[in-house]
Amino acid sequence: MSLYMQMGVPPMHRPIGYWLKHLDNLLEQHFATTLADTGTTRRQWQILNTLATTTDDPHTALTPFHTAGDIDHALTDLTTKGWTTPTPTGPALTPQGHRAHTRITQRITRNRATATAGLHPDDYTRTITVLRTMAANIETDLARHHP
User: What is the pTM of this model?
Assistant: First the structure.
């Protein structure tokens, strides 16, 4: 139970940081539950999805969220499963990896639908805009005042 709940603070009066952390924890739990029987972690899914949908190197694409060691560890696990293979230009999905990505994408799509149920698409867009703006404001302030 959170401190805010213990203090009896009504949900609408809890700060944005509370909701960001709470949602992040719930997303992690939802991913873990959804992917448990596949033996895949959220990090591994992020790498699979990056390789399947972009030309980005997972290290570059995911570094803001994970350390290089975390990405290397997840890639090693995916290679052990036969889902990725090293190539001279970086990791690539194998045919088995493409099939796994397709299967898991269906589950992730359901997760996203669950998370956004009851939201109008404009609400989601506005929420992303607000969060992106707040992040940019703080990044700018940190760069200016705390180099």
Answer: 0.77
